[in-house]
Amino acid sequence: MKRYLTRLSIICLVFIIVAAPTMNFNVMVPAAVSFPGQIRSVAMIDRTIMENTVMNAIEGGLTGEMVGEDKLATQILMDGVHSIMVNSATLDLCGLRKY
Known about the structure:
Structural class: mainly alpha
Helix content: 40-55%
Low-confidence stretches: none
Distance between the termini: 72 Å
Strand order of the largest sheet: 1-2
Largest sheet: 2 strands, parallel
Radius of gyration: 27 Å
Mean pLDDT: 76
């Protein structure tokens, strides 16, 4: 009986290891940004207008977005572009940000 349980345990263990689910996913890589050689400096300006109106509150309630998500998304986008531009060896960043 003990030998049977040992064999059964080994078979179950091997089955669990071999039949373990695998997870595959594809990751999209952003395209490389290239600028013409004549461009030496780039200005980054946040021109978004955040209005605190009743219509924005109603729209947020209907679409299910949280308060301030628009501003947060804009800040995240601007920070991402800023980090890409700062690491560029060929461009100088002259950014104006209102945070």
